[in-house]
């Protein structure tokens, strides 16, 4: 059994796909990760083969601001990061405006590359990231068997006529747009829905006029299996019957901390201090103002120690915390952190409600303070609060006292809800999802 896993060149997508690919390999499949060259070491680390394939123009190799890309992509990144400071509607409207360039770049070239790959290797089936729309469209045109991997909130796959990609299905109470801004956003995502669908139809007409045309491009997924890197929460919109595989999380077995990080954690947690992680993902680490505010609040209003993942903004975060009088003995700031491994030592986390951070915290039984900025983060923050697994605050109005009070509540909670979810997720995960996939696809 030969499976090719297609990922866009984003660390937050390639990492869980590599974990699931490794689980498929343990079930006896030969698995190759198809992505851009900087992700070859990730494939090797997971025990997978590697194929050089690009399905989009932009990239994020682990810290978005450090990733080299062409000037147009850098300009879009700067525009997006600036928009996050103007609130949820501005961020989502900017993402909607960028969507065609980000997600459907060069569909004819991608189709040709996928065709060439298939003619050379003849894999039995593919596992494709749902946001790699050009790759899904190529597989559809070539009539090749594939399973879909949904890397974010399950509503990334629109499930009804009023559901749109880019429009959160629900909002947390503390972060929501005005009715006027919500109407503007709804119009923008509906127009994107129509434009993407028309673009899909044009590609199908050029390359495979005999193939069916999807009613909605964003809803085009495998009819055989859609793997959601998300728990099966009872209030989520219903998915098509028989296709949804709720993996719960795509985290590997917890790796041991290396000597450096063991020393850091042991120093910070001396005398029994709890540890709080503060990280906003590979894009939003650029919001050093929010990182510094959250860390300062935790340090001032709790007895916890804090580790901050600051990306390319270590200097700015460190300077702001020094100016605020943060105690150096309870603080460590680094560009990147081994988040998954550190969660085994953490008592709480402050994150951006990104899907990987959300599911990693669930798998570790760690409650979280969510600070959502964009994408599906508002929907995830809503689910976090509704499941009593954490709290949510607006990152753009965040004050140290509010951040500290919220984390103090998390540290004082008995953690029963988080432990219950963790126990349930032990029954699911990448190994369970891989077994389901092997059954559904063969």
Keywords for this structure?
442 residues, alpha/beta, six-stranded parallel beta sheet, 13 strands
Description of the molecule:
There is one protein chain. With about 450 residues, the protein is an alpha/beta fold. It is built from 17 helices and 13 strands. The strands form two sheets. A seven-stranded parallel β-sheet has the order 3-2-1-4-5-6-7, with helices on both faces. Strands 10-9-8-11-12-13 form a six-stranded parallel β-sheet, with helices on both faces. Helix 10 packs parallel to helix 11. The N and C termini lie close together (about 10 Å). The mean pLDDT is about 90.
Q: Would you spell out the secondary-structure blueprint of this structure?
A:
Blueprint: E1 2-6, H1 11-26, E2 30-35, H2 40-45, E3 49-52, H3 71-84, H4 88-103, H5 107-121, E4 125-129, H6 133-142, E5 146-150, H7 179-207, E6 226-228, E7 244-246, H8 259-268, E8 275-279, H9 281-284, H10 288-301, E9 305-309, H11 314-323, E10 331-334, H12 339-342, E11 348-351, H13 355-364, E12 368-370, H14 377-386, E13 390-392, H15 400-412, H16 416-425, H17 430-441
Parallel strand pairs: 1-2, 1-4, 2-3, 4-5, 5-6, 6-7, 8-9, 8-11, 9-10, 11-12, 12-13
In short:
By secondary structure, the protein is an alpha/beta fold.
Largest sheet: 7 strands, parallel
Radius of gyration: 21 Å
Question: What pattern of helices and strands is seen along the backbone?
Answer: EHEHEHHHEHEHEEHEHHEHEHEHEHEHHH
Side-by-side strand order of the widest sheet: 3-2-1-4-5-6-7
